[in-house]
Design brief:
The complex is a heterodimer of chains A (282) and B (192). By secondary structure, chain A is an alpha+beta fold. Chain A has helices spanning 2-20, 32-42, 55-58, 60-83, 103-106, 137-141, 271-279; strands at residues 92-95, 130-132, 158-162, 168-174, 187-194, 196-197, 205-208, 212-218, 221-227, 231-237, 242-245, 252-257, 262-267. Classes of the chains: A alpha+beta (282), B mainly alpha (192).
Amino acid sequence: MSDRRDLMTAGLEAGLLELGRSIAYPAPAADFASRVAQRIAARPVPRPWWSGQSRLFGRPVRRAALVAVVLLLLLAAVAAAVGLGLPGLRIIFGFPPGVTPPPSAITATASPPGTGASGAAPGAGLGLGGSVALGRIDAAAGFHVLRPTDPAVGTPDAAYVETTRGRQASLVWSTRPGLPATLEPAVGLLLTQYDGHLDTGFFSKAIGGGTTAEPVVVNGSNAYWVSGQPHFFFYTGRSGEFVEDDSRWVGDALLWSDGTYTYRLESSLGRETAIRIAESMR
Amino acid sequence: MTVEGRPLEDAELIERARRGEVMPYEELVRRYQDVAVRTAHLISPDGDAEDAAQEAFVKAYAALGRFRSGSPFRPWLLRIVANEARNRRRSAGRRANLALRAAEDRRPDDAAPSPESAVLASERRAVLLAALNALRDDDREVISARYFLELSESETAEALGIPRGTVKSRLSRALDRLRTQLGPGEPGGLHV
């Protein structure tokens, strides 16, 4: 009896294996994997509950526009990055006019205590985070913040750390001879260091029409010289989350990564000087 | 994605994905997209299996921090896929039946049978599938995992979120109920 049952089971199992190869399964689309990547890129970065109103609901129009841009233009981004020969860096072109962050959205968290509209430290109001003493910036950021050693630059006039959207540290130099004004009249040079990478990760950037992104090299690393209209971008944070950087754009930007950190240097000094300053950072 | 022609191991891709790289994760997606879509379809045939599988991959990416290094990725992923598909089945409020491929969709490597045997085989499959479709969800899932996805017992256990010992007992009972559905005229269901 047991033998017969075993035989029946064996027959049933063989029949099920055969049946399994005859099921009408749907086949994944050819772009299945890239669509997963798009969904990952479009996910909002979780906000801690104590950080106040959700950015998702606080700025729905902008967020929706952002997601739409990312979804619709990702393909162009990949093609552009591959075409530019910089694997790992994906830039999204064609950011539509009118979606530039409104100043009111940016300045909400920017002003450090004790600074007013006039007489504020340079960079206050750019959405760079909280003001910190220059000597404490490494401790506040939780990583070593590089500074240019180029003698033409000198000592920064203000320092900021932002920890609510990834970790970012910014150094700001006031306008002075040799450091002409950027779009922000009081700021001659802005250097931001992000605790995240773009070297081999997913990095997307939205820039406006008429803006150019020219591939350059900084200390042997792939970099972009971005000039033109305002822009914002995502980078990959240390925990793998996508972080949207929405700090205000003040000038032509040099953007690069050393594999651990990502850097953005903004000024009105032009490409070659920006690269020289970037390569002097220690 | 290769290094000197060598495909990267899942573990390497996972470690890089954990560091925030999406391109290695895309490679993992490509490796497992077929089995993920099949899993979603087997659990929720009337749902959008591709969409469910994509959503599961996104959730898996977000959950990589909880993935145990060194353990196999496929059953861990399939558990997330299965949960996603179950949620969609629950939302739909009903479960659709699995269907057979049309004869003309036969795989290129299938041996071409004679017309008579093809009809018989087709009838046998239809009878067996009808019996399977009549089973409850738990039974159909464990049978699908073992015989359709051809997962091992341990993979089945992880994918379905049940202890390994339960796989054996549940599968045994499911096959008993399948036999009952097939009736006495179909010993083993199939004369193979």
